[in-house]
Amino acid sequence: MKFPLYLDNHATTPMDPRVLEAMLPYFVEKFGNAASRNHAFGWEAEEAVENARKQLARLIHADPKEIVFTSGATESDNLALKGVVEMYREKGDHIITGLTEHRAVLDTAKALETKRGIKVTYLPVDKTGLVSPDDVRQAITDKTILISIMLANNEIGTINPMKEIGKIAKEKGILLHCDATQGVGKIPVDVQEMGIDLMSFTAHKIYGPKGIGALYVRKKAPRVRIAPMIDGGGHERGMRSGTLPVPLIVGFGKACELCEQEMPTESVRLAKMRDRLQAGIMKALEEVYLNGHPTQRLPHNLNISFAYVEGESLLMGVKEIALSSGSACTSATLEPSYVLRALGVGSDLAHSSIRFGLGRFNTDEEIDYTIKRIIEIVTKLREMSPLYEMAKEGVDLKNVQWATH
Amino acid sequence: MAYSDKVVEHFNNPRNMGSFKKDEDGVGTGIVGAPECGDVMKLQIKVQGEKIVDAKFKTFGCGSAIASSSLATEWMKGKTLEEAAKIKNTDIVQELNLPPVKIHCSVLAEDAIKAALADYKKKAGQSE
Ligand SMILES: Cc1ncc(COP(=O)(O)O)c(C=O)c1O
Question: What is the ipTM of this complex?
Answer without folding.
Answer: 0.95
